[in-house]
Structures are given as structure tokens and as C-alpha cells.
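To whoever picks this up:

The parser on our side crashed when reading a file containing two proteins. I've narrowed it down to the boundary between the first structure block and the second sequence. Both blocks are reproduced below exactly, byte for byte. First block:
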Amino acid sequence: MILWGPPGVGKTTLAQVIAKQTKAGFISFSAVTSGIKEIKKIMQEANTAYGQKTIVFVDEIHRFNKAQ
């Protein structure tokens, strides 16, 4: 799912509400400040969430480069 809109309209909040209502874990990170090492760690954490659904929210995803 892609949540698109200007800053401050509640994209992150909406993703958190969806996670809470679906009883899923929630991990948020910014593509601007995260490098490959951090991304791999976050994805590993999401994959090993003890059978729990996990929503990974990537803020500023359009800032990713090909290496990431």
C-alpha cells in the first residue's frame, strides 16, 4: 500500500492505526537516514517477528537509491 500526501496529513498515523487494528507489529524507518545495513536489520526483524504480521513503514521511500 502506498500512502501519498503532503507532510503532516497523517500518513504515519494511519499506518500505525492499521497496524493496531490488525494486531500487526509496526516498524518505521526513513529512507533518507537509513543505509543498507539498517535496512537489512529492519527487514530481518520484520521476518522474525515470531509469527506476527508486521507492517514496515518506509518514510520518504522515493529517496531510495539503487544501492539500497
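<<boundary where parser fails>>
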Amino acid sequence: MERGSPKVLFAGHISLDIIPDLSQVTGGFEVFRPGGLVLVDGVRFTTGGAVLNTGLALHRLGSSVRLLIHIGADPYGRILRELVKSALHSRTAAHAEKPRSDVVVLEREGEQTSFTFVFSPKDTDRMFVSCPGTNSRFRLDDIEDEFLQGIELFHFGYPPLLQHVYLDGGESLARMLKGLQRRGIVTSLDMCMPDLQGASGQVDWRSFLSRVLPYVDVFMPSVEELFFMLRPRTFLCESQFAVGLPAGQKLWEADLAEMAQTLVDMGTRIAGIKLGDQGLYVRTGEVQHPGDASEASGTDPASGVGDAAHSRRPSWWQGLTAEKWNHRELYIPCFQAQVAGTTGAGDSTIAGFLSGLLHGLAPEECMTHAVAVGACSVEQMDATSGIPTWEQVQGRLQKGWASLPPMVALSNWAARDSLHYGPRDQK
């Protein structure tokens, strides 16, 4: 994708992440006891949330992006504004030309900028303590038409943290995404874990997804989120999911296949399930529907979006052939990495996958770049400073990058290098 005016718009949840350096703290969260003292080596203020984690990662990979952020007129808001400005205007040595990215700032008087304390002890998954702040006031009509000019890909993140988005059960979000697809814009959606003790934990998320996914081209939630949203009773009964999937916990491909098939049946064209340190599982439906090639046939039954919209889809999307993309089932484990922190790893994985799409790559290559970018992310404490350029990612892959062994229990799968092809794969 050429670096020009912004082609990718990011909207949804934002946060100022405050990350104490726990890299020298051993013992995981067991060291945090009432009345105790834990010394840290410093603290880092970084950008956070789906918009900034995925958006800035894609920017660092060389794509031109537009970030829609909403902040309060407060000290945290000023810090976040400067961090975003600095991130967009920094130039890496490998970039001959800096991507032309920009930011749209919606500042609200009298409101608190969202912030998140991120606790990420060594060799332990992270924990968040978050203040929703301005995210609680975010509305879909904040995304004005002028922000969409020239946009080819729209990524929306974390509905469970956006009160005005989930309160109507997904009807407004579905309506907006349907409108974007009619304009020829490719749509991408990311989720997060709802607050199990709060209002978002009481939402019927299966119903929410059934309304929204017919208008989502790329959907990449985590396995924990899917278990809660599609199998809430199983999630609540199996305590390992309450604090995230523990390292080494076996996943069964039958569970992944059933949940991914549900997502495809609901209407999304590409369903990716992020598995933490266990890798990435991808299932696709009809990414290129047979009726898409003809404007005259009216409406695509899979999404309710007229085929005329397909002719307005960007060339990189139209180049994703049915032969390579339709009805795929693939799994890839993570690459080996020196883990400094896992904050934003999933968001960076999505950025790697979307970057592959923008470059017109096959699904196997998109998945390889997804876990590669995710691995680069965890080598730094924050979400994006470890992300190299697209060329550097490719260089690291070409030199031979060792993968971790597959941690998903696979049955009747075929392996080719680090990629694994499932029994439902139609290639």
C-alpha cells in the first residue's frame, strides 16, 4: 500500500496507559499482598486502547492512518495528545518516507481522559485497572463523514468498554458498519473482555455479534472473549478463563472450529481467534462471494450489502481471490521472543494481519506477519515501541525465525513449515 493520505481510520476505545516497570519483580501477582511493598524500576506513560495500539502499530509498519481520539481537558489528556503527536511524527531509519498519518482530537471539557494502570510482571500475563473516562461518552455519531473521506479500511475497537455502543445490543454499530460497506469501505472489528461485575458483563453478546458480524469483514477477538460471549456458562464454570488463559493451558481445535464456524455463520468473512502465547487460528467464509463480481445481481445475501459496493471496494481487497481465501482453516504458533511485556500484543497481531491484507498477501502470509508483529510487540514493555517497519519484519522472517511448538491440540491437521492446515481447509 502506497504511503499517501490516510487510508485506514481507527475509532473506538483509547487510553493513557501507565505501566510500572515490573520486569525485575518475580513471583507474579502473588507478591502483591495487603500491607506489602513492591519496589519498581520506574514507570512509563504510553498510548493504549484499540485505536492507538493497533493504529500506531500499523503506522509504524508503514501505512498511512487516521486516529480518532477523544480526551478530556485534563493533564492526562495533554500527555496523551503529546504522545500521539510524537508517535506520528517520529521517523525510523528504515522509512525513506514517513507515512502521512494524522489524528483527529475530540476534546471534552469537564471530563476525565481514560487511563489504565497496566501491571505486567515478568513471565505473567498482564492485568488492567482502568478508568473508562471519555470512552463512556463516545458515540458512533462522533465519526463524522469528513473523517471518512478517502478511507479504505475502518477498524473499530473494544465495544464492551464503550457504553453507548453496547447499550442498544449492537443495532447502531451494525447500521454504521453496513453503511461503510455500502461505501466500499472494508470493516474490521476487535473486542475486549467485558467487565464481568458491571453492565457490559450482563449484555447478551451472542445476540450483539449476530447483529453486527454480517457487516464485519475481519473479526479478530481473543479466545477468552469468545468463550465468554459464545459460551458464557462454560466460561464461568471453568475458572482458568477468569484471569485469562494460563500459559501451557491446552486448547482443543474442536472448540476453536466450533466457535469460528459460529462467527462465519453469523456473517463475518474472516474470523481470527487470538490465542495469546499459543498463536493464531483463522477461519474464513466466502471472502469473495460469487455474487460480488456482478453489480447487477443486487444484494449479497451474506451481508445484505449491494454488490455495487463491491466495485467500490479497494483494489487490495478485490485482489483477495476466492481460490486463496474462501473456506480456509489455518493455525500458526507464535515466534520465539524475549518477552518484556504482553500489553497490546493482540492489537499488534491484528495490525500485522491488516498490513498483510493491505499488501495483498495470501492468508498464510497474513497470519505469519500477524504473529511476527505480535512477537516484536512483546519484546518491549508497551504496546507499540517494539514494532519495526514492514521491511524489517520481512527481513527477520527471511533470516529464519524459530517458532514455538504448537500448543493447540490438533487432530488430522497437515503441517507445512510453521503453518498448520485444518481438516476443514478447502485449499
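After patching the parser it read the second block fine. The longest helix spans residues 363-378. The mean pLDDT is 88.
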